[in-house]
Write a structure and sequence with these properties.
Keywords: Ion transport, Plasmid, Signal, Transport. One of its GO terms (biological process) is copper ion export. Belongs to the membrane fusion protein (MFP) (TC 8.A.1) family. The chain has 508 residues and is α+β, with helices and mostly antiparallel strands. The strands form 7 sheets. Strands 4, 6, 21, 22, 23, 24 and 25 form a 7-stranded antiparallel beta sheet that branches. A hairpin with a 7-residue loop joins strand 17 and strand 18. The protein is rod-shaped and about 150 Å long. The protein starts with a helix and ends with a helix.
Length: 508
């Protein structure tokens, strides 16, 4: 039994010696290589005797958006990585997603379809009195109020209902003059022509004064009192009268409003003005009656703009037969600006709006998606109109596209799609020595050997530290084997460091 064990140990020793020699040779080759892309191209050509692939361009090794038509090095001395024909990104941005990745992300799709959409212009406003239905009761002569028949503001009144009675010396005088002129026998054969003409002028003057005062000429006995009636059915908004009060010509004793129809004055934002037109229908909802909506019609678009709020008032008219709408109420208005026309639409969640352009993720095939620029029209409650970029029946992503909701992370999200297996940061191992350590910024400068997995030559570069404990006990110049993570955007962080001798001992 001892002899086979000795032979086995001898074989292991020979294997270790050959591995060390191979490692030293490959290290020397990596250090003396000037252009890794050229060596990589030669290796590709020699692999299997196949025809070498054409190099399209060289990309930045740190992932920066920089390419070169010729081999070159970056500011850190790292070679640009060749991109071969067939390996370049899709020129249209299409990406491939594995079925497992689709299930993990919860990707959902929907069809672009033609429909009548809800694209109402929403505004806030307040209920106002219909200005055309306001009536002022204002006598045109001087007098005194002797009796009030309606005594309080807010009282309902009907057309023709007595409001108040007045006494006016001017009114009595005009009526008596008309009565005297009538009593003269102007049609008698022996009547004096001059008296007949004077009586006619007196009667005409009395009739004109009564007509100007809007008082009917008495048909019989002169009355010293006159009663004013309501000119409309409605409510008393203002009452300035008390019994015994003297009034002057033009004094508004009562203000009455007909509230069977009311106005809603809503403020529409400047950006929505082109979408609203006179004659369009609208829905009005009130805080007082949240479960009810009222039909209204847009009747006027005011010609002014409020510079402070950037809004323009619009006027809507609606019926108030039940008296539920009271002036001053706060109202929400939805103006149906889209009408009933059919439009090509996609769900609202499908649109990625960067501020400068709008994009949807179009389904190109099984697991293949393409960012498709579109031109957007009206925006509804649940859908948006597509003017250009899609056709009826096109399939788009409506869920999981929140990962790419801004132009700044669009490329990063698409790269996540194209690399479904890279759910964690990639780890790499390297051999080198510590050049310097800066614990204040958790960084370390390493003299490392070539790293074939990243096509990096031997060089000195700065790494981040996952923690200060990683580099604890390691001295400058001491050979080490370290593991680091590629966290993206050119960030490389060392997560583990061990002495090169200890690592070799573990190998034995």
């Amino acid at each position: 039994m001892k002899r086979p064990i000795s032979l086995t140990l001898a074989a292991v020793a020979v294997g270790v010696t050959l591995s060390a020699a191979y490692w030293a040779g490959s290290r020397h080759a990596a250090i003396t290589t000037d252009l890794l892309p050229a060596a990589h191209a030669a290796e590709t050509a020699a692999d299997g005797g196949k025809q070498p692939r054409k190099i399209l361009y060289y990309r930045n090794p740190m992932g920066l958006p920089d390419t070169s038509p010729e081999p070159k090095k970056d500011s850190m001395g790292m070679d640009y990585i060749p991109v071969y024909e067939g390996d370049e990104p899709d020129g249209e941005g299409a990406v491939k997603v594995s079925p497992a990745r689709l299930q993990t992300l919860g990707v959902k799709t929907a069809m672009a379809e033609i429909r009548a959409m809800d694209a109402a212009v929403r505004a806030v406003g307040r209920v106002e009195i219909n200005e055309r239905a306001i009536h002022d009761v204002a006598p045109r002569f001087e007098g005194w109020i002797e009796r009030l028949h309606v005594n309080a503001s807010g009282d309902p009144v009907k057309r023709g209902q007595p409001l108040f009675s007045v006494y006016s010396p001017e009114l009595v005088s005009a009526q008596k003059e008309l009565a005297i002129a009538r009593e003269l026998k102007l049609d008698a054969p022996d009547a004096d022509p001059a008296a007949r003409a004077a009586a006619g002028r007196l009667a005409e003057a009395a009739r004109e004064r009564l007509a100007n005062w809007q008082v009917a000429a008495p048909a019989g006995k002169v009355s010293s009192r006159l009663t004013f009636n309501s000119p409309a059915t409605g409510f008393v908004l203002e009452k300035k009268a008390v019994e015994g009060m003297r009034f002057m010509p033009g004094t508004a004793i009562y203000r009455i409003a007909d509230l069977s129809t009311v106005w809603v004055i809503a403020d529409v934002y400047e950006k929505d003005l082109a979408r609203v037109k006179v004659g369009e229908m609208a829905k009005v909802s009130l805080e007082a009656f949240p479960d009810q909506t009222f039909d209204a019609k847009l009747t006027y678009l005011y010609p002014t703009l409020n510079a402070a709020t950037r809004t323009t008032p619009v006027r809507l008219e609606l019926a108030n037969r039940d008296g539920l709408l009271r002036p001053g109420m706060f109202a929400h208005v939805d103006i149906a600006s889209a009408g009933s026309a059919k439009r090509l639409t996609v769900p609202k969640s499908a649109l990625i709006d960067t501020g400068e352009r709008q994009v949807v993720l179009r389904v190109e095939g099984e697991g293949k998606f393409k960012p498709q620029p579109v031109k957007v029209g009206l925006r509804g409650r649940d859908h948006v109109e597509i003017l250009e970029g899609l056709e009826d029946g096109a399939e788009v992503v409506v869920a999981a596209n929140f990962l790419i909701d801004a132009e700044s992370n669009l490329k990063a999200a698409l790269s996540t799609f194209s690399a479904p297996d890279a759910t964690t940061a990639k780890n790499y191992e390297a051999v080198g020595s510590v050049d310097s350590v800066d614990l204040s910024s958790d960084t370390v400068s390493m003299n490392h050997e070539a790293i074939p997995a990243l096509q990096w030559p031997a060089m000195t570069m700065e790494f981040g530290l996952a923690s200060k404990e990683v580099i604890k006990g390691v001295l400058p110049g001491q050979p080490v084997r370290f593991t680091f993570e590629d966290r993206g955007d050119g960030e490389f962080v060392i997560v583990k460091v061990e002495q090169a001798g200890a690592a070799a001992h573990k190998g034995h």
